[in-house]
Amino acid sequence: MKKNRPAALLPILVFLLLYLGLGLTFEYGMGIPMGFYNIPIVIPFLVAILVACLQNRELSFDQKLEVMGQGVGDKNIVTMLLIFLVAGAFVGVVGRSSAQSVAYFMLSIIPARFAVAVLFVVACFVSTAMGTSVGTITLLTPIGIEVAMASGFPVPLCVGAVMGGAMFGDNLSFISDTTIAACNGQGCAMKDKFRENFAIAFPAALVTLAVILVLSFRTPLPAAVIMPYHLVQVIPYVLVLIGGIAGVNVFVVLLIGILSGAVIMVATGQIAAIDLLSSMGSGAAGMFETCMVAVLVSAMCALIRVYGGFEALLSFIRRVFRGRKGGQLGMGLLVGVMDIATANNTVAIVMANPIAKEMSQEYDITPRKAASILDTFSCVFQGVIPYGAQMLVAISTCAGLGQAVSAFQIMPYLIYPYLLLVSSLVFIFVLPERKK
Predict the structure, then answer these.
(1) How far apart are CA 173 and CA 304, in angstroms?
(2) How many domains does the chain have?
(3) Residue 260 and residue 235 in contact, taking contact as beta carbons nearer than 8 Å
(4) If you placed Cys at 248, which of 191, 223, 243, 270 could pair as Cys (CB 3.0 to 4.6 Å)?
(5) CA–CA dist 404, 395 (Å, integer)
(6) Is residue 11 part of a domain?
(7) Does residue 14 fall inside a structural domain?
(8) What single string gives the DSSP state of each residue in 210-267?
(9) pTM score, whole prediction
(10) Per-residue pLDDT for the chain (436 aa), expressed as one digit of tens each?
């Protein structure tokens, strides 16, 4: 019999209290500018892991280390860490000048008013083709920052548009880990899940585009944006975007970007050949905090799972929500809470799958609808939590390009995830269940 211990969830509460509590105190209580940005997120996670280690006396400390090692060694975590490092190397190679050239070239062929809307649409296409939101954010955030600097749009608005588009593809792509996990867990075909999901995601994306255009036309901008750019420096990003839209593996796409960027940056004299490896190393090192958060979260969740915290959470969800619509909402909140706990939407889906399968049978929910709900709600929560990989990559990229932006400055502009939640609730409570 599985353990059921609500006290095992204490480390998550400790982390949230420390991170959010200190951030609010610094920002609003003490008036420290960028209060949240001044909190090293690794420290609250270390404290939370310490709390988790002090629990569950049935296991020795060595056994707890083994449990944490198994959590960190999960395939999804290893893949994520490698993407972070390779993406950091790519950013280090192409540097800021390449992203500037892409941004200035884009602004030379489209009106500046539509720049943020174009960023959102491009992010939607790239993420759908690549199947990874983190990869999309890594590629497009530097361009978004340079668009903001050149055009006068707020940096958080441009970054929020990129993140929203990235989560659109993460939710819908046939090669996304979340899609594969949800479909396999619920036993439905990907095309059936896609049809259910598209009915939720596409209206949210259209409304998001409309909101971005409204915000764009309300933002005072210069009459024209005319900045010099080097067209040849656009090539690495063009190759990466083409590869992404073509559905090429994210590692291959990034390696193409690194190789082409290295050749072009050396040939144009932007960097000396001897400094190339140093730049790649600096870019990868810039992802240190992001990688550490992924490691610490997976270690903490492994301890919580063994002690019975997640089983207690699942039991509570089943006990509270009744009826078909209540069951669907409970299923969505279940994967959402899992995502808050793990900061990884694929892991959250994998953990929620067994109980969601039981709930779908108990509440007479079709497999395709269950898979759609799991994937959609996981992307909603993953898209807005301030310590998720997507947000951390965006913040790290901003910092690397000299823009100190905190998660809580970006969160008001995460228009798509918020509208995706609204669309999901309409999908559950308004639209009738369709059955074959």
Answers:
(1) 31
(2) 1
(3) yes
(4) 243
(5) 8
(6) no
(7) no
(8) HHHHHHHHHS---S-------GGGGHHHHHHHHHHHTT--HHHHHHHHHHHHHHHHHH
(9) 0.73
(10) 567 788 888 888 888 788 778 877 876 677 666 566 567 778 888 998 999 999 888 889 899 999 999 888 877 678 778 877 887 788 778 765 666 676 677 667 788 788 899 889 888 887 876 677 887 888 788 888 888 888 888 999 999 999 999 999 888 877 677 887 788 778 887 788 888 888 899 999 999 999 999 999 888 776 555 666 677 777 887 787 677 667 677 788 788 888 888 888 888 777 777 788 888 888 788 777 767 877 888 888 889 888 888 778 777 777 777 778 888 898 898 888 878 877 778 778 877 777 787 778 777 888 899 999 999 999 999 999 887 888 888 988 888 778 888 888 899 999 999 999 999 999 888 766 555 4
Amino acid identity of 109? Answer: I
Rounded Cα gap, residues 45 and 346, in angstroms: 20
Whether residue 4 is contained in a domain is answered as: no
Residue range of the domain that includes 356: 56-429
Question: Which amino acid is located at 253 in the chain?
Answer: V
With respect to residue 227, please indicate whether it lies within any of the assigned structural domains: yes
SS (H, E, C) 308-363: CHHHHHHHHHHHHCCHHHHHHHHHHHHHHHHHHHHCCHHHHHHHHHHHHHHHHHHC
